[in-house]
Amino acid sequence: xxxxxxxxxxxxxxxxxxxxxxxxxxxxxxxxxxxxxxxxxxxxxxxxxxxxxxxxxxxxxxxxxxxxxxxxxxxxxxxxxxxxxxxxxxxxxxxxxxxxxxxxxxxxxxxxxxxxxxxxxxxxxxxxxxxxxxxxxxxxxxxxxxxxxxxxxxxxxxxxxxxxxxxxxxxxxxxxxxxxxxxxxxxxxxxxxxxxxxxxxxxxxxxxxxxxxxxxxxxxxxxxxxxxxxxxxxxxxxxxxxxxxxxxxxxxxxxxxxxxxxxxxxxxxxxx
Length: 272
Ligand code: NAP
Prior knowledge:
9 helices, binds NADP nicotinamide-adenine-dinucleotide phosphate, seven-stranded parallel beta sheet
């Protein structure tokens, strides 16, 4: 019998030329590194932040992206900044409206990196209920509001990507992280379910679940001893850097990664 005819297909690429990416929490830390990396791959960026004190950080990122290469179009920018609290539904809608107006297109990529942590690392029997609610309102409700909007607006038919940001704590269950871990477990659940609910859209939905990454969030409230412990338990003997994470997202949102869908991708050096 004749072997089946092998046809050649175009290899999917990792370029993001002219795709519009919204990155929440892009003023600092992991979100900032992701936004910059996607820009180096050719994407146009929507840089979101919330604190008035972070405006300068957002502006610095904007000029860094603009210096990579000018916008190929005289009518649309290379990147824009949108201040929005992701736990507020009206502000999230405004974030997406502003993005669509600025770039004259629906977004192709949405990354929900904005998140907060309880810097007192209180146990579940000590944490104030108001603090529990605050964490859930940003991490769980905020992610929900963003992915709901994304699911309705991201381009269908190929190349549409939603990446949430969870945490490896949903696998390691560290003490003192109860509310935070529970809020990220909600992110894991929503990610896996939305990926199935978007059947037929060719939009993929995945969660990035980093381990300890050297950012403001990681160092906030931790003693040198606690930081050292995180280094010692890691097989690679160091903390992660934002540059360890951003290229993983760059691949996840590329055409080459379409078959990765509904997954929780742990990026943590192997500690869990
Ligand atoms: P980070 O350095 O503290 O940065 C947090 C970012 O989120 C900032 O840009 C902040 O904006 C933004 N943000 C916070 N609340 C917001 C809100 N209500 N609306 C819009 N933006 C908001 O934190 P990171 O370490 O980069 O963390 C990024 C994500 O990774 C988070 O979801 C975090 O849970 C997750 N993560 C981090 C680690 C780690 O070890 N660092 C590990 C696992 C998972 P402003 O600058 O305006 O405050």
